[in-house]
Amino acid sequence: MNKSKAWTAETIAIGSELLLGGRMDTNSLFVADRLATCGVELRYKTIVGDELSDMVAVLKTAARRVRVVIITGGLGPTIDDLTREAVAQATGQRLSRRKTALDGMIARLAEWGRTPTKAQFRQAMIPTGADIVSNPVGTAPGFVLIWKETFIAALPGVPREMEPMLHDGVLPHLQAWMGRHKQIQAIPVIRRVLHTSGVPESIVDQRLEGLLPAGTMVQLGIYASPMEVMVSLTGPDKESGPVTIDRLFDEARTRLGEIVYGEADDTMESVVGRLLTEQHMTLALAESCTGGLIGHRLTQVPGSSSYIDRGVVSYSNRAKVELLGVSPDLLDRHGAVSAEVAAAMARGIRERSGVSVGLSVTGIAGPGGGTKTKPVGLVYVGLDGGPNEALTKEFRFHGGDRSVIKQRSSQAALDLLRRWLIKKGGG
Amino acid sequence: MNKSKAWTAETIAIGSELLLGGRMDTNSLFVADRLATCGVELRYKTIVGDELSDMVAVLKTAARRVRVVIITGGLGPTIDDLTREAVAQATGQRLSRRKTALDGMIARLAEWGRTPTKAQFRQAMIPTGADIVSNPVGTAPGFVLIWKETFIAALPGVPREMEPMLHDGVLPHLQAWMGRHKQIQAIPVIRRVLHTSGVPESIVDQRLEGLLPAGTMVQLGIYASPMEVMVSLTGPDKESGPVTIDRLFDEARTRLGEIVYGEADDTMESVVGRLLTEQHMTLALAESCTGGLIGHRLTQVPGSSSYIDRGVVSYSNRAKVELLGVSPDLLDRHGAVSAEVAAAMARGIRERSGVSVGLSVTGIAGPGGGTKTKPVGLVYVGLDGGPNEALTKEFRFHGGDRSVIKQRSSQAALDLLRRWLIKKGGG
User: Fold this and answer.
1) pLDDT, position A241
2) Which of A129, A147, B214, B217 has its CB 3.0 to 4.6 Å from that of A91, i.e. a possible disulfide?
3) ipTM passes above 0.90
4) Which CATH architecture has domain A8-179?
5) Is A164 within 8 Å of chain B by CB?
6) Residue B375, CA distances (Å) to A305, A348, B121, B240 in order
């Protein structure tokens, strides 16, 4: 356990629910990423319950083996929120009520027309010598403490509180402290990500074979999830080596071609939204088996109201007839799950709403409702952009439950729209 | 770090991709659950990269603080698969090629018409004194080793290999070993969960104050997320103590009252679905700011097609007029985000679709679109179950982004429906 050679870090996630509560610690992914860009390498992640003595022991172990310790969770107002006590005990500091911490909390609560409860006052108890990290979103303040040449930060477990606090409150402190230890080298590592849709992991793997030259420090990761295959390149920033990570990234993008829908924080819905905005187009949806998921995803993007006019979730056949003008005869002849009905749904929603393009999905999400000829996982997507601009596509999704089939269906529909918009825009 | 009092465990997940690859260790959830039912309490989870010295250090720390160590990952054929070496180094054992391990691997590969590569022979190198755990799915064998009164198991990281190996290969070993240490009490632990909606964590905390009698081994957890506050009671099965976990659970349920919407794996959407089914009611949705999320959530439940007729996502005012019959005059007078429009939307969707009950949401999800009198987070929910059965409710959600406001709005709408259905059903 040699602390002196490099900038190393450990995350400690606190909470018994992370041990036996079926909850995952997702914060450490964000922390790892941000630390890497500062040249600090995450070496360990530890997860521990709400037991004070366990927390103290874990903190002491971390302080022995790394230089930077980021704790998340356990800063709430309840009696099992013991991070403050654990840090105080491990570092031999006292807890005292701090005015900055209290004032921030009172101000935040006042915005919501509330005053602190007795329990909430506990949140202002901070170890002596620590600097307060204010919370721009919730009530619990965080803090930063340097102890025996170890940088310790404690932040709330709620991601939308933790993330801005790490970024605005902790990292500037950390960088200033690192600046005072110039004898320890910091190698900023960056991570570049591509998102692909529509092909399995094995195809992505094949296309990227031999991408990395021998001896490079850049690492390639290929990760499959129900909605996409993600590709990541992780390594030193371009200034540090002869084979730049940017060049490898461009090469990967070229090799993967049209299956790449975005990079970094892009989502399929944000990419589609950008294309619709650029082409001044409006969209209406006719969803069946996805049940509103496509609408939900598209409206996650701020400003989406400027291109989404409406959506219809036509779960029943009657709704398909009444809201979309699908003919009962067509439903009888082909069944609700068919290319014909998908086409009629897309045309129906476009014509009735007067938008540029209509997008539809009909399928069997399961677990019931499948037959031999129309099994669970059979899905049709329809797109209608006006006369001579209609298409449908059949998908057969295997080996997923209802939720996975809904996710993959929504992704397939949005990807069809994406590719159509790109062709339409001449891109 | 007292090892002698109870059966305690730590999981160690091995792999650099779990540190900076954007990948999560999900195996530990499964392991925690299985160990709890054997009376072994998971106290720590550690995640470490492919660095041999880090792995050895982590193993030694674990062996000092717990009785059972379950390692996942690092058993593959490549040179960064170092779990075998790490266990050998930490325990001072030699690695040797073991016939049982090799034979199992050769047999598995033969099924696939292959023979071991040179690299794969490394997978049969097992620490002296360890028992082989055969792999029914892949090639890498696992092993179990007892060292200094610590039970150490090493298993592959792939869940569908790890899970049967833990269950069939490791747990019988563990239980036999526990049987030889009867002086250490094994207390099988269960976990009971309640889900509440509509009040903040601090209120739940207040209502449960003093629930746990002094000296009980049952632990209370209160966990807030954007959509709910979850309450868990974790402790010995009812046979083990005078205050049973079941009695505490019933007491908690009574104290919390109508804010409890479900228990265990219940979700708000499954509970609402059950109530609709019991009362033979059908539902139609008119969503504005939630963009389809309510429809998406309800249709996550298998069989939901029997009570959900349709949904309309009326994002634009024109859609509200055309699809729901909201009068343009009403929109002019009160604005789209108003109790009046929420009521008209719910009535409109119910009347037009002929269902038992219509549910509507209109609000400002942000980040844009807010004003002084109608700020981001202002949301109206409407419910219409026919003449004299209409209600609306105003919500003001603070401190969340667009996604959180959508989530909380969908939860508030479903909770209003839930409470109405319960009253209606005389429950």
Assistant:
1) 58
2) A147
3) no
4) 3-Layer(aba) Sandwich (3.40)
5) no
6) 17, 36, 65, 53
Q: Confirm or reject contact between A317 and chain B (CB < 8 A).
A: no
Domain ranges of chain B: 8-179, 189-263, 268-424
Number of neighbouring beta carbons within 10 Å of residue B8: 20
**Among residues B140, B102, B103, B1, which one has the least CA distance to residue B60?**
B1
* Per-residue model confidence as pLDDT tens digits over B395-407: 999 878 899 999 9
The alpha-carbon gap from B389 to the nearest alpha carbon of chain A, in Å, equals: 24
Question: Hey, which residues does A53 pair with through a beta bridge?
Answer: none
With a CB-CB cutoff of 8 Å, which residues 236-275 of chain A face chain B?
none
Statement: residue A1 has pLDDT above 80: no
- pTM of the entire predicted model: 0.83
Look at residue A292 and tell me whether its pLDDT is greater than 70: yes
- For residue range B70-116, list pLDDT tens digits in order: 999 999 887 888 999 999 999 999 999 999 999 998 988 888 888 88
Closest to B106 (Cα-Cα) out of B97, B98, B116, B96: B116
Region B268-424: CATH code: 3.90.950.20
Of B257, B301, B256, B281, residue with least CA distance to B359: B281
Q: Are A257 and A199 in contact (CB under 8 A)?
A: no
What's the pLDDT at B21? 66
Is B316 in Cβ contact with A310 (below 8 Å)? yes
The tens digit of pLDDT for each residue in A36-75 reads 989 999 999 999 999 999 999 999 999 999 999 999 999 9
CB B306 within 8 A of CB B277: yes
> pLDDT grade, residue B1 (50/70/90)?
very low
Chain A CB contacts of B23 under 8 Å are: 221, 223
A10 in contact with chain B, both atoms CB, cutoff 8 A? no
In the CATH hierarchy, which top-level class contains the domain B189-263?
alpha beta
Nearest CA in chain B to A316: B309
